[in-house]
UniProtKB/TrEMBL annotation:
<keyword id="KW-0732">Signal</keyword>
<protein>
    <recommendedName>
        <fullName>Transporter</fullName>
    </recommendedName>
</protein>
<feature type="signal peptide">
    <location>
        <begin position="1"/>
        <end position="25"/>
    </location>
</feature>
Length: 299
């Protein structure tokens, strides 16, 4: 695990230094569209290879303050690579590095960190109105999350609390559809992805969920753009060995403003926040905003 962590950190450092190195090719020229796009929303062309690193910080509190509240905080770095072997196909892999802390009402703490669970996806573009500088794109997505995270234990050898674990230990398939439209300085995205988790460690099974994104982006200049999105998650309650958890499951919606900036050819830096302004989760679940910073580099 230590070797994997070191390799991932070196890759992230290389991405952060990418603006100061020379690119092999111009991705904008190859796809015919100058729109700055974050990882996972780019237009494909054969041979495109994109690397990215995304930092996130978030947390939530479950339960009633002063009674049974449990607070979770997480810092996460996703290291990802996406490659297009064909003009209509993107293959990608994402490996997270995570650090978690939970604190209960008694103020006792548990901390866990390490390499998280690898996600592999294939994105096929079934329709594009033209091969070069497409204005309409329709794609489907399929993939799986694999149980690559270790089971974390304390100094006494006992397993850490389920919420301190950085992985579920389950094999979780996912599938989705997306539509993108490009019109001058504007671009739009509509996407829906479904997740169907299986049972993992400690008998835990996360609820099936549907995640959606509605986004509009305005790019008045070559080097920067503003993006506004509504992200949502609708999920069934989780259970442990068939016993449904009291808190969790339901609907939550986020307002997601981002700023995208290109400091050099084939480099896109994005910074933003996901603010939970609709919270219809069951029980007592209070979520914090999610801070995000990413850099993507086309080789």
């Amino acid at each position: 695990m230590k070797n994997t962590l070191t390799a991932s950190l070196l890759l992230s450092a290389a991405l952060l230094l990418a603006p100061f190195s020379s690119a092999w090719a111009c991705a904008t020229c190859a796809c015919g569209d100058p729109t700055l796009m974050s990882m996972g929303t780019e237009q494909p062309f054969e041979g495109r290879l994109r690397l990215s690193s995304t930092l996130r910080g978030w947390g939530h509190t479950v339960g009633q303050d002063g009674v049974n509240a449990m607070r979770l905080r997480e810092a996460r770095m996703d290291v990802a690579a996406a490659y297009a072997p064909l003009p209509w196909l993107f293959l990608s892999a994402t490996l997270p590095l995570q650090a978690r802390e939970i604190r209960d009402v008694s103020l006792s703490r548990e901390r866990g960190w390490g390499v998280g669970e690898l996600e592999l996806t294939a994105k096929a573009f079934l329709f594009r109105d033209r091969a070069f500088s497409a204005k309409h794109l329709f794609s489907v997505l399929g993939g799986v999350k694999l149980p690559t995270a270790p089971v974390l234990r304390g100094a006494d050898g006992e397993m850490l609390n389920l919420d301190a674990q950085i992985g579920s230990g389950s094999v979780d398939p996912l599938a989705g559809v997306a539509y993108q439209h490009f019109r001058g300085d504007w671009s739009f995205l509509v996407s829906t992805t479904g997740f169907l988790p299986t049972r993992g460690i400690m008998g835990f099974r996360a609820g099936a969920s549907i995640r959606t994104t509605l986004a509009a982006q305005f790019q008045p200049a070559t080097r920067w753009a503003l993006r506004m999105a509504f992200d949502s998650r609708l999920e069934a309650p989780a259970d442990i060995n068939g016993e449904r958890e009291e808190n969790g499951g339901g609907f939550i919606g986020y307002a997601s403003p981002d700023v995208l900036f290109s400091p050099g050819m084939d480099v896109v830096v994005a910074a933003g926040v996901r603010v939970p302004f609709i919270n219809q989760l069951r029980g007592r679940v209070s979520s914090t905003p999610i801070a995000m910073l990413s850099v993507a580099y086309d080789l």
